[in-house]
Amino acid sequence: MTKITRHFGALCLAGALAASGASAQSNLTAETASPGNSPHVSVLYLAEVASEAGVANLQVQEGQTLTNSVLNVAEGRTDISSMPLILGFLLEKGRGPYSKQGEKGAELAANLRALYPYNAGAYGLIALESEGIDSWDKLKGKNVWNGPPRGAALVNARQAIVLASGLKDGDDYTGHQANWGQLPTTLVDGSMDAFVFPLTFPSARATTMQAAGNVVIVSTPKDTFESESYQNIFKAPGNVPIVVKWEDMGYEDGKGIRLVSEDGTFRGLGTAFTDVVNKSMPFETAKGLVAAYIANLDRLKAKTPYMKNVGLAELTPELSGFCGVNPVKYHPGAVAAWEEAGYTVPDCAKE
């Protein structure tokens, strides 16, 4: 794992990050996902830089179910949470995991404000070279791990497979689901023929799989990715396009990981994320948090290589997932921090 994650792992398990002296102005609570992904790293990084800047000390709870964490922020029980943007839409509409909220969901969604954008990687096909799967069509008749038992990840993985190959779970291949915590074992135990899930670049999941042999990563074909049907999925809330050249993916030629792409470029469906707060957070607190986040982005990228490829500071609606049907806007304090740092925040993403 990266330095930032190792540095904070014990502190998070202890329930809090230590204060950096008496200069910190407030104590805040934060919730995030399990280790090994950009939402987890993002919140821990925020905890580090906010403490150093004297803005706040964050008590971080990791390994949380984000549907619940987002609700906690909306209801004022938690200060900060990682959030896939799709959850803001679902909460506003009272759908999916928030169906019990009904019309109240819109009121709760109106309490959410974003700090900054990023993504959780792009859906790709990954398999051991020994399986001989070097195209999406070759998933036919195979056992494919395609996500946890329920949620947006499973829906998106199935959608990515249908769009790239026309194959449907249960009819053309056998989809298998398990909790994310079981994935590291499944990657190397030989029980699956292939996997379709979000990949960051470089990906700890790909390097974990290398323990069982050489690995192939299959991009969505360029013609498919650029087709009208595939581009339409980016109009849905929380979906963003991700395009990364091989030389920027963090791997080396001949070192056990190979990209299958007609032009040496990975293309895939990405999941837009943000870290959210309640609209009641004071302007200066939100501004201070985001200012510290922005000021240290180079350090974040150096400590965690895959964070170079997750859309940090990418504020355009097309690549961040904001605006359109996404109801969540940036906190006014966050807007001020971004603009003072020289970035342009789209008007559609402001209150």
How would you describe what is shown here?
Helix 6 links the parallel strand 5 and strand 6. This protein has 351 residues and is of the alpha/beta class. The N terminus is likely disordered. Helix 11 runs parallel beside helix 14. The chain contains 14 helices and twelve strands. The radius of gyration is 20 Å and the shape is globular. The chain has two domains: 194 residues, Periplasmic binding protein-like II (D-Maltodextrin-Binding Protein, domain 2, 3-Layer(aba) Sandwich), CATH 3.40.190.10; 150 residues, 3-Layer(aba) Sandwich (D-Maltodextrin-Binding Protein, domain 2), CATH 3.40.190.10. Helix content is 34%, strand content 21%. Strands 1, 2, 3, 4, 5, 6, 7, 8, 9, 10, 11 and 12 form a twelve-stranded mixed sheet that branches. The two termini are 38 Å apart.
In short:
By secondary structure, the protein is an alpha/beta fold.
